Records
---
Amino acid sequence: MEIDLDGIVIIAGNYGSGKTEVSINLAVNKKRSGIDVCIADLDLVNPYFRTREVKGLLSELGIDVIVPPEKYLQADLPILSPVISGMIRQPCGLTLLDAGGDDVGVNVLAALADSLGGKKYNMIQVVNPFRPFTDTVKGCLKMRSEIEKASKMTINGIIGNANLIDETSVEDIYNGYDFVKQLSKESRLPLRFVTVAAALMPDIDTTRFHCPVLQIERQLVPPWKRAVSIKPVI
Amino acid sequence: MEYRHIIDSDRCKGCGLCVDVCPQKVLEISCEINTKGYFPAYQARPEDCIFCATCCLMCPDVAITISENVHDFAEQEI
Amino acid sequence: MSKTFKKPECLSDLHTHYCPGCTHGIIHRLVAEVIDELGIKGRTVGIAPVGCAVLAYNYFTFDFQEAAHGRAPAMATGIKRVRPDLIVFTYQGDGDLASIGMGEIIHAANRGEKFTTIFVNNAVYGMTGGQMAPTTMPDQRTTTSPFGRNVKEVGMPIKIAELLSALETPGYITRQSVVKPKYIVRAKKAIKKAFQYQIEGRCFSLVEVVSTCPTNWGLTPVQAIKWAEETMLPYYKLGEFKVPE
Amino acid sequence: MGKVLMKGNEAIGEAAIRAGCLNYFAYPITPQSEVAEYLSRRMPEVGGMFLQGESEVAVSYMLFGASACGERVFTTSSSPGVSLMSEGLSYISGAQCPAVFVNIMRGGPGLGGILPSQGDYFQATKGGGHGDYRLLVMAPASVQEAVEMVMTAFPLAEKYRNPVMILGDGLIGQMMEPVEFPDDLASEPVNKDDWATSGMDTRKSENRNLVKSLYLSSEELNKHNLHLKAKYDRMRREEIRYEKYNIDCDYKALIVSYGTMSRVCKTAIDNLKKEDFKVGMIRPQTLFPFPEKAVNEAASKNSCKIVISIEMSMGQMVEDVERAVIGKRPVRWYGKCGGDVPTPEEVIDVIKSMVKEA
């Protein structure tokens, strides 16, 4: 099953739900299928593990990456690149906006309201049920309404990103899927796709899922680990 | 009711604030040194004392007490 | 009214280290009398400052903590936030509260922390040997303003009661004095009121007390109370600056 | 309860709650602000208390006041903030109150940067504030270990009536790892009636308690400091913790490293093993007390030619390593700081060239 997403896609969710890793892999996935992709790092609240860490790699793949100016890349400053509003006004095949965590992280979207005004967009909530505050359906719904309130925008889909990083088991993936399925039912939001780490893929029976699967090649790793090497797009 | 006006001469630092505020001018500073080396205040004219407690109020060292129980103080003085 | 007068229970038998005529002794006694009268000794925690009153903990008979310079309001905040049932007061001088601890007192007052501050203003650093304080009077000579406080260089004395009463958060802020018997009677009433507001859990309370420092002012105790009355009181007006609704 | 995926900072906050500490005062600073953000949501759920102070200075005294009246309390900060708290740490240590401080280190000196560093080793282990005091300092190398150390820190702080510091670097705070909260590390606060200013009524006591650090007579102050020293000596006897890695082989070099740096070193050691190049490591889990004996013994192995202290600082722990090795082997330092974490490849190159020179 192909992931059916194009135009402006805003990736939101609670802290550490895996928005950035999902955004990076979604960008790569779409680029591989021949779609023009650009991605903007809107994370003004998180100091580490941001899209900007893999700018070089994504650029090599031909993905446009919008991050704050080079000299402020590691600054503890909330800098919103002016290029972002331009990219929203003239979106490419897939324009990914990787927002910061929680309601606080999407505050910045409200500031972009002028650029987004009247544009069609998808705002999708990434959910990892192994994270605090989103380990219950109720918690996820609360997060959803907080994000919507802060961004003044509406969430219209869910991404299931159940994982315990290296310790994720096949069982965890299945349980995570059941959880987001239930969330989708209760929230009446479509489940756009679920994620599975590349290393786990061979053990997963994807026919169990009634939605597309995004394979995650983990890029945001601590310095003692190697990122999964991404093959160039042909 | 019978009252007693007592100055604990060893607590007194001889600052003279009580002497200054006494409305009846009862108090004066003694010429005799106390165990701490201060010249304490004493009642020069006890007969004029009206037990108004103004001196007690002003004393920074709680050196002055007024009692209505004569026996208690007799004990303390030993 | 009973005419008897004796040392309050909350005051220890120790003779204080204060200089003759120092009004700290009077203020200690008033606080002790109020705690006696309110019957709160068993749940009171005092906080001693850095300054002449650093040893204040020796003169009271209930639990005490000793703070670093200016930090007593932060410690009091710590106590009240984890043990709101305790009655907490800080006892601070003008160097401690109005200089190094200005941040702590303003924020504690503004958060409406439910403790009481007894702020002793004698217009000079006592403990460290008579240096200029934020509350030193214009032209007043101190060891660091040997030619008198030059307000053009160091500004005017800070009026803490007025400053704190400007905060929008409800509080009880008053300035009292102990340089005359009638002021002492009023000061005690104010201190009692301050503790009562705390007991009722209503607000932050601060009683500024204009007092003396004969030794560092270079005056006799009697001259000192007169100097305070003539020089300080016209500038540091007595009264209630803020009362909770 | 099963595993959850948590950021180090969140896990530290949750660990304190699980340990039985429901009082948290803090001031925001990157890269540890998530602790306060997490606990501002979480504390109300468990009936706990969170207050954002006006400064790190004030926060350290809020801890002091709360701890002095007998309550469990903790705070978190990062390097510049911990400098401000150092005054309070000195007073709290002098007054012998238990409290837990977490430092998620960033690069310095001054404002430095927000990326991970281990530049506060001296500050944490040698004092930072004034006077003869020591903190019990623990350094986690994973989010799980951070959880366990935080949970252990409270009973230790109470055992010694002394602040305990958890010294993590920015990565420990920011990275996500699966964690579990061990129930058996939860502990009840000990009885503090003999010293805490909890109110005489609370203790049903006629005697008042006094918490202070002032000793006017030189004799008394010396006695007080000897008492403190005896506590620190007891920590040296009873609290040393460390991990041995690849120590059962004939290694040519011994690495000493802690925290995030030790994880990079582990990868380097594993990779070197594949080339049959043997390297051992001692990872101090307590930085004070420092595992001197373990380092000395490991350095004494016949095959060991050199001891290398690898740190994300400009040579701080190396001084303790030198003290431990007492000249038995050459001691070298390698490090980077300011967020430039050495890679396993760099570490491998350094080990190889240092062994060659030795």
---
Amino acid sequence: MFLLAALSLAGMTVLAFHVGRRRALSKAGGRWGSLRSLPTQYGYFVALWTALPASIAALAWGTLGQRALPWAAENGLDARIPGLVLLLSTACAGLAWAAAKVEPSFPARESTERIIRILLFLSSGVAILTTIGIVLSLLFEALRFFALVSPVEFFTGLSWSPQTSLRSDQVGSSGAFGAVPVFTGTLLITLVAMSVSIPIGLLAAIYLGEYASPRVRSVVKPLLEILAGVPTVVYGFFAALSVAPMIRRFGESVGLDVSSESALAAGLVMGVMIIPFISSLSDDAIAAVPRAMRDGSLALGATRSETVKKVLLPAALPGIVGAILMAVSRAIGETMIVVMAAGLAARLTANPLSAVTTVTAQIVTLLIGDQEFDSAKTLAAFALGLTLLVLTLGINLIALETVRRFREQYE
Amino acid sequence: MSSAGASDLRATALTGRARRRLARRHRAEKRFRAYGFGAIAIALGILMLLFASIVIGGWGAFFRSEATLEIRFDAERIDPDGLRKPDVLATGDYGGLVRDALERLFPDVAGRRAKRALRRLMSRGAAYDLQKRVLDNPALIGQSASIPLPLSDEADLYVKGRISPDLPETERTLSDRQIAWLDALRERGRIHTGFNPGFFSSGDSREPELAGIGGALVGSLMTLFVALILCFPLGVAAAVYLEELAPETRWTRLVEVNINNLAAVPSVIFGVLGLAIFLGTFGLPRSAPLVGGLVLSLRTLPIIIIASRASLAAVPPSIRSAAMAIGASPIQVVAHHVVPNALPGILTGTIIGMAQALGETAPLLMIGMVAFVVDIPTGITDPATVLPVQIYLWADSPERAFVEKTAGAIIVLLAFLVSMNGTAVWLRQRFEKRT
Amino acid sequence: MTRSVEPSAPPTADPHEEEPNGARATTTVGEPRARVRAIGLNVFYGEKQALFGIDLAIPPNQVTALIGPSGCGKSTFLRCVNRMNDVIPTCRTTGRIELDGADLNSPSIDVVQLRAEVGMVFQRPNPFPKSIYDNVAYGPRIHGLAETRAELDDIVMGSLERAGLLKEVEDRLTEPGTSLSGGQQQRLCIARAIAVKPRVILMDEPCSALDPIATARIEELIDELRESYTIIMVTHSMQQAARISQRTAFFHLGRIIEEGETEQIFTDPHEERTQDYITGRFG
Amino acid sequence: MTSIRPIRTFRAIALASVLPLTLLLAPIDAAARDQIRIVGSSTVFPFSTTVAERFGRTTAFKTPIVESTGSGGGLKLFCAGPGDDTPDIANASRRIKRSEVELCARNGVRDIVEVRIGFDGIVVARSKVNPVLPLTRKQLFLALARRVPVAGGMVENPNRTWKEVDPGLPDREIEVLGPPPTSGTRDAFVELAMEGGAKQIPMLATLAKQDKKAFKTAAHAIREDGAYIEAGENDNLIVQKLEANPNAFGIFGFSFLNQNVDRIEASPIDGVEPTFENIAAGRYPISRSLYFYLKKSHVGRVPGLREYIAEFTSERAVGPDGYLADKGLIPLPEADRRTVRKAASALEPLHL
């Protein structure tokens, strides 16, 4: 049914295009010169007016008319038929209206372009709508949470232990909702990840850009990019089952007390995942430094490494900083690796060998747990999500501002 | 050959100190180069390690073992009243047929426990297989045939050598007796291990030997399709607007900050958004690829917009000026010249975004795609699951044989990913050659 | 192994070994003293040959202008002198090029050291995204030419002075080099080059991106620098070549058509093609 | 630019941008539901899916869709309303709460049918590398509680090694991987093992009689200093971590023990080994009931609901020799099974 509707709309659109073009040509008596716009532009005009209103009608029906479905089903009707009829009749009406407007004097191109401009503008607004949607879908539940737990406790409390009771006849333990350890845990893991990915990613980018032959580059770069595409579930297993025990054994051999779920294991693997973000983006940034800079430095007798360190890196810094900040926000947002390898114990510690937890890991476990759904525990997930959103927004604003300042300095 | 002295440029001027300094600089250069090489070696080494461990663990998932049994399609068990009605045939006791065949092979097995142990060598799928055969061809009733039927997950693991018979009996899931039976079947040439087409064509199942990624694969493709046809035009349109048409205003700066921020929002939050908006407000069905695609398209949109803007910005301004100079309107310049020139870059960004969408799990947790779906979806509103979610679910299953299946599914997912990345690389190289 | 002059010859790790004209390296006796000398120099970009058996001697403390139509190999020749062609992976050189008798393509030549001896100024000014001071100090710093800050200051100030820029930038040394005007930037690049105290300065159309006033200043500067440096300059402007150079070489299709005193080339060329080019009949 | 013809590319792009518009039509297609939808606990998920698959293969009905959302998340969806767009069944690894029932009622979900399907044992296990270590609930309490009684007062748990808990135990550091506070498994463990252990300590036992609330506060709190490690909900992962870390104990469901007997070994608790028979007979102290809840109003509207319940409560599913027993579900006593079957087929509404 959906396919039928989609195909018929697509067909009508193509038909409308031809109707518009033919009509313009026949009105002009075959002489193009008398038309204000090209015949195809009349075609686009009619096609747009066919597809657009029909789609809006379909959306309206899909969201509102859908509610009529159970009613229709109970009365033995197929509620899909009126939807299809609505769609096709709107399309026909649009076609007829637009076709009637086709006159040699009608500015079809300007008209079409105005609509396209509006459509393009609206597309750019989707990002804003998404953000608004995210904020709205988090805000209300977060507010309910803050009605139960004071924001002061949430933002400054040093103990995170959502051990409230599951049932009314139980007594919860501490039920502390101080989010500081959760955020410091995120910070710790991000730091570990960055200390792996920044040097490796940056050095890899430099090697590929400055030393490797084009052949090697064309093979290695896509291979590195695969690292970013490996599903995080896979990394999670790798971290939990290969890396964590390895670190633990190593730690024991040198007499260190290593938790079997350590921030180090999760951070290292996350760092590996992030390498391509840093290497690809910094590679682009370094490649964007004008050739003249590189030549100028080499011609002065600088070695390649001196050229890289003293000229290319400073010049590419805004891009590299941007890449690093993007990678940081990616690390903050990473969920599955932490859920699997870093544990869920919220501890206020700077020791990467102990188990910590992160915001995203808490969000997931809080949302898919077994606890009752109207407790502060579930609602805490939304508060965490909202805080995280604000946090990444802050990082991004800083990143954009830094990049802009650097640009101003170097351009 | 020139004299040795001539090769030194400033033989007299170069003091010992300068000479040492030069040597030091060259050593630093070599070191730096080695660091770069080392970094790449480490990254690729980890990649290889990861791939090797997955392939070794998951290769077995592509094979399954079957035992050939003499099945007597006993009318008593399948169709007691002899009416050949399909709904009666569907509920026949096909498990009984398998049991009978096994007991004929091992007539000395006695006692309820022993018979149960014997029956558990064969997969529950054997009965489904026979049921399908009879429904397809009711004339089989009353006949006998020798039919290869799937072994149970544990027997399959044993045949593939993943359970050692040397372990003490209490430490494995197969008893000594069961192993003896399997060895006997093997000696009689009744056991074959071959390619398992069901792994690619079947939907999910609770029986590891029957479970396949067919449903998840179709679900993934549908989800990606929805995400693609949404976010590609939207992303390109937004990028074109921001890069080519929009004046530098507060609005565009706001949009820009927004896009960069969305690229960094944890993906699980997009799931929360999908739950509230698409399921809550618009009333779209749960677990559907439609909603999954919508959520993933919002997730991928920023990536595509950022990549598209970069590649639009890389189109030389001279092309714009040239088109403008012959009287093309801004929209025409963009549509006829700028976008086609930037297309390879845009497509590369889109593919990379799609590859990331392919691997997402967390947002789909929230919109009901972490589900047990046996039927292969036929439309974008049918309940479905996707590959990474299937992996997540199998990884959480107690049956040992799912470990192999999990790794097998990961291999398939990685294969998809590598081929998508490969396409992106191919496009990029074609593009680089052209300019 | 004498086939190596042919375009199809395989790239060799050590080109001068198969130098067919190796014997001529010893024939420098009796010829005028040359700072840079090319003997049978061939350059290939992949399969394409860019220079064919160039023989050229460049005397010290003079300005030598390389002229010729676009794509004739002038810049390629220039980039042989400080081996900047090494940057291009497909580029390969046979034949011999010498700096004060030292074979530049010899494996024992340290490119880094070579480039300290042979400075280069590019077509478009390319100051680093650093302060004016740091731009000039870059070379001395990497080569360790100054041991103390005071020494470095001396070098920087001296170079800016010689480049005729010091007065203009004296009180803004910490501002980025990119904040200067085009002509100033180019003089900054010249200051940057001479700060390393090279023997030879290569200039690749140094004025082509500048307005006439800035061009005049640079030309003046080049004329002054001739006292202490050997300058090889690529230019598209006949007038410029005539004004400031002492010797001129005319390149065409990768070969030297004619080479000699500037005055002689511009007033009484031996070759008809030279005549045609300098009078603007082709090019 | 020879390989791309701009105008043609433009037309292709124009057509491509019509495609997303057609997506808006997709909801038109959403017809009335013809399959059962189940949500809820990840512990019940393996059993629920087994029944669903069998139900789908052997009947003319479509295979139900089972989602793993956690008990709380499942009940939230279940209680969202009575409509077709809400699930018919919610699985739970704990009993539904009174407040949840009330919320359901406010949303119009009134007649809820409760079905108890069996037991799940919670085991404390360790890698096979080490010899079996029998434990008591008291020892577990002393090892894992946040505060323990020392010399008449409650202090932060000072025990670092098992030997400090009980001199008879080995001198190994306490390291236990267990479920997080959001998990029903954790809840059951706390209630059965920790509370049971606490009651064996005279000081707390008297407290239990005087102040129930204070007793529970003391008994239910698990230490947060690193000896107890909150590992995710993925029990397989815990099993594999135990293999990598032979000294650690893990707390998880019986079915995972069942499948990994070659690698891990469970400690007998209070002298009782967690075997199928012991749990079924109620001898093993740490086991809990599993449930599912059903909307009575959906019976008759959604095809196959009645038949699904019949299958789930049938002897061949939940009986001692049933196929769910193969999957690790421990059956209820025979009398209970009969009662449950009768109540379920009559769709008797829940009374808390």
